[in-house]
Amino acid sequence: MCKFYVILLSALLLVGCVSQPLPDKNEANLIAANNYQGLTEYYKSQLKTSPDDKALMAKLTGAYFKANDLESARFYTQHLLTSGYDSADFLYLAGNVYMASEQYPESIDAFEQAHNKGYDESDLNVSLGIVYSNLSEFEKAQDQFNQARLKGHNDIAVKNNLAVIYIAKNQPEQAINILTPIYQAYPDNDRVRMNLAVALIKSEDYATAHQLLKNYYSDDELITLMRSIKAL
């Protein structure tokens, strides 16, 4: 049950973007096409002639991460950290790699190092908030999300994540109050719709939750989903 809860919580939260250095023209073409597998090959070919270029290796790490090759991203992350590479952008990336690997203490350490090196973007606060949420340290998580909000982070992402905290704290009515106006303004936002439905199920408003989800799930799927959420 605990493992399922962590997986569900992670799925409901919205993560910030991972920063990368500005690309050259060849990189830009691959990035524009979201061809992260192509990017990994591009960076590896460059590493053959510049094997000691740690900034290039950090780019390769980011490409592996975006290509969902978490094992490779971890391998290069650990190598770069061991070798002492400590650019702020890379440390933020390292935090996200560890977060995706559910290595939360290592993730917090990397994020804090990134902050100490001058990385002060709102997405760092969002990422830290997600880590603390997965550790059930909800007050710390809420503080990080509010810090992101004060820095001008996307309101939908911040409010969505705050609502997830209220769901996790078994305060679904608070989540409903946050998410309902967002859903009314953005009814096509899948994540907001799902989180609102989860809050409604937790508050035992099954009819409204069914209305939100009926076009996306079969009746059997909805029954299974509602049972799983009620059991959390």
Automatic annotation (TrEMBL):
InterPro entries: TPR-like_helical_dom_sf, TPR_rpt. Residues 1-21 form the signal peptide. The keyword Iron does not apply. It comes from the Bacteria. It holds the Pfam family TPR_16. Keywords: Repeat, Signal, TPR repeat. This is Uncharacterized protein.
